[in-house]
Prior knowledge:
The complex is a heterodimer of chains A (351) and B (289). Chain A is 32% helix and 28% strand. Chain A has 351 residues and is α/β, with parallel strands linked by helices. Chain A folds into 2 domains: 4-20 and 46-253, Rossmann fold; 261-334, 2-Layer Sandwich (Alpha-Beta Plaits). The relative contact order of chain A is 0.13. With 289 residues, chain B is mainly α. In chain B, 73% of the residues lie in helices and 0% in strands. Chain B contains 12 helices and no strands. Mean pLDDT of chain B is 88; it is low at 1-5. Chains A and B meet through helix 2, helix 3 and helix 4 of A and helix 1, helix 6 and helix 12 of B.
Amino acid sequence: MTEFAIEAKQLVKKxxxxxxxxxxxxxxxxxxxxxxxxxxxxxxxxxxxxxxxGVDLQxxxxxxxxxxxxxxxxxxxxxxxxxxxxxxxxxTAQVNGFDTVKQANDVRRxxxxxxxxxxxxxxxxxxxxxxxxxxxxxxxxxxxxxxxxDELIExxxxxxxxxxxxxxxxxxxxxxxxxxxxxxxxxxxxxxxxPTLGLDPQAARNLRELIAQLKQExxxxxxxxxxxxxxxxxxxxxxIIDTGKVIALDTPEGLKRRIDQKEIIRLELTxxxxxxxxxxxxxxxxxxxxxHQQGEADLWEVNLQAQNSRAALPRIVEHISGNGxxxxxxxxxxxxxxxxxxxxxxxxxxx
Amino acid sequence: MSSxxxxxxxxxxxxxSDVQAFWAVVRREWVIFxxxxxxxxxxxIWPVIFPMGYILTARALxxxxxxxxxxxxxxxxxxxxxxYIAVGTMIWMWQNIVLWAVxxxxxxxxxxxxxxxxxxxxxxxxxxxxxxxxxxxxxxxMLMLVSGLEYAFLFRVHFNGSLWLTLLxxxxxxxxxxxxxxxxxxxxxxxxxxxxxxxLVRGIVMIFCGITYxxxxxxxxxxxxxxxxxxxxxxxxxxxxxxxxEGFSAIAFDLNMLALFGIFWLAVGYFLFNMMERRARQTGxxxxx
Lengths: 351, 289
């Protein structure tokens, strides 16, 4: 049995491509118009889209591993392969020592999974009925299940509302039932896909505390999230995935050290226009410019990474003066995980 | 970092755990079914309304005094034309409801978002389809019972046959009716939308199986096709068992055919389900809405 809780070796997943979304052809491959294919004539292979392209992961027992990536980077496909919903096109994965294809049921028994959050439970059943139902699906004997359901309802502070229909719950309460469902069989490994998505700040904070407690109790946790602070706060190690590949894997501190020598210049502007981006990028030593409009007002946050902010600042200020652009605020900040992400992928996580 | 696992799974895998999981699916489906009781209206009204058009047409053609019924009696050996139509339409309704309810059961779960969370558990996956069919079967038997009572009291239908033989034919019909439903459910998950197929299948049953007329009036080629449809034998068997006094020997052939069709359609349903399940793991179809 592998020493790792989760181990993936060169995982690849390809899907049939929709029109215009297939992988780019290698140089020299023909792009001539398709020939007519007669019945029984051997057809050309379908175009494929590579969602995951050789992912290697080794997640140790008892750690919280954060998997970060922008939409479409391949993190959900990776998670779905690990929890047996998808078979890899090539490569292998083991969860708790079991092969995800050949020993799929053993993998399912080893995992507690939160996918699709509040939509993963029955809204027309009560919270308690949901948990009793899933306890049976996870093969927990009835007497044990009853105690375990009570225990989880108590822990999630849902005792007063446990017998109400889930459709009357708030998003946070539904998410707590979804997490309780994942914890029912007390599985050694938890896969949490965007567990705090849609939660209010208090509910999200409570959930982060719960995740930290679960680690203390010995669970291995694979967490995907869009929230950098969350990944930074919770994860022992972080893998950054982009275009189907793990492009960086380290502790949060290790990742931040990679751009320690750089400084982040954060500007707040009104009157932003796209020509400015080209001008700012042309300044020597400035790279990885990202912009983000704040609310509906004409207020923009512009982040730049610079080798030497003192040298770059006068030229930045010079470029943004005039033409209706006004500098509202400016800071030089320590690199965050988000900046690491931008440095590595060239885009913000929300892209 | 590396630590020994301190968490121990509470799961106890085995045959009885799978049986418990199957009953949990049945219970879940039943609780949701009875919690939203709009079906009660359908239970009482639909069996009366649906055959009414056919019955009134038959009445118009046979005359108010029934003088035109001789041909019908000569062809079918029965004089209870209302019961004849009621049984035919009931079997059609049964197959139709199974196509919608069982055929779309997994698809409905998929659209709700719960199919994936079921699929993530170590339970035998056919349990989800089989388990959700049981409450549907119970509700269908209730519909048949209510229909029988309504026909007897509202339309004065004389069910001269045997209740037990009628139940025996219905029992023999279950594997083929639900086998077709299972096959359909797998098709729906793969294609996402299969309304056109429902209309096609129920149209075929309506035309070829003689829900309101004897097969003898059909051209030979249509009668040949009818022989390959289990609903033909269900309708004939239930009519014979419920409306005539001919006894077991008159339905023995129907029962044999239904047993064969039952094995065939259950096997097709199970095969297509496994094929869909395998394909879904390759394409990710389970999580796609």
